[in-house]
Amino acid sequence: MVTSTPEKPRARDAEATQKRILAAAKKEFAKNGLGGARVDLIAERAKANKRMIYHYFESKESLFQRVLEDAYTDIRTAEQKLQLDHLDAKAALDTLVRFTWNYYLANPEFLTLVNSENLHKAKHLKNSQVIHVVSRKVVTLVEQLLERGVQEGAFRAGIDPVQLNITIAAIGYYYLNNRFTGSIIFEKDLMTPQALEDRLTFNIDTIMRLVCK
C-alpha cells in the first residue's frame, strides 16, 4: 500500500524558510539599502538559495517590499497592544510617546529601512495594500485618544491626529537618525543613557505642551 506524503511538514518547512529569508533580508536591507543589498548574502544567511528566494518572493524588489510591510506591521501591532483605553488621556499619550522612542531605540533597522524607502520615493509602499490597512490603525488610535482627552478636559479641541502622529515620530526619528552628526555638531554624545533620558523627557514635554490646555 502506497501512502501519501504528509503536506503539513512541507508547509511548516516552507514557512520556516520564508521566515529565515525575511530575517536575513531585513538585516541586509537595513545595512546596505535596496541598491547595495545582495541576494546571495541573504540566501547564505538564511541557509537557503537564490532560487528559493525568487520562488517565494519573485524579485529583490518584492522581497524589499515585504520586509517593509512586515516592519510597519510590527510597530503598528505593538502600538495596538499598549491598551491605551485603560489609561486617562494624558497617561495614554505619555505611554505612546515613550513607546515610540523606545521602539526606535530597540529596532534601529526600522529607521534605516524607512530611510532607504524614502530614497526610492516610497515606490514600494505605493504598491502595498498592507501599509494602508496598518497605518489607518495608528491614526484611529491617536484620533480616539485626542477625543477622549477633550472629553476629559485635558486636551485642546481641533488637533489633527495625522499631524500629531507625524510630530511624535519626527522628534524621535530625527534625533536618532542624526545621532552621529548631531554628536559632532552639538559637541556631546547624544547616545549616553543620560542624553537619551533627557531627550525622552523633552519629547514628552513638547508633545504635552502641544495638546494640553
Automatic annotation (TrEMBL):
<dbReference type="Pfam" id="PF00440">
    <property type="entry name" value="TetR_N"/>
</dbReference>
<dbReference type="InterPro" id="IPR050109">
    <property type="entry name" value="HTH-type_TetR-like_transc_reg"/>
</dbReference>
<dbReference type="InterPro" id="IPR001647">
    <property type="entry name" value="HTH_TetR"/>
</dbReference>
<protein>
    <submittedName>
        <fullName>TetR/AcrR family transcriptional regulator</fullName>
    </submittedName>
</protein>
<feature type="DNA-binding region" description="H-T-H motif">
    <location>
        <begin position="38"/>
        <end position="57"/>
    </location>
</feature>
<dbReference type="Pfam" id="PF17938">
    <property type="entry name" value="TetR_C_29"/>
</dbReference>
<keyword id="KW-0238">DNA-binding</keyword>
<feature type="domain" description="HTH tetR-type">
    <location>
        <begin position="15"/>
        <end position="75"/>
    </location>
</feature>
<dbReference type="InterPro" id="IPR009057">
    <property type="entry name" value="Homeodomain-like_sf"/>
</dbReference>
<dbReference type="InterPro" id="IPR041474">
    <property type="entry name" value="NicS_C"/>
</dbReference>
<dbReference type="InterPro" id="IPR036271">
    <property type="entry name" value="Tet_transcr_reg_TetR-rel_C_sf"/>
</dbReference>
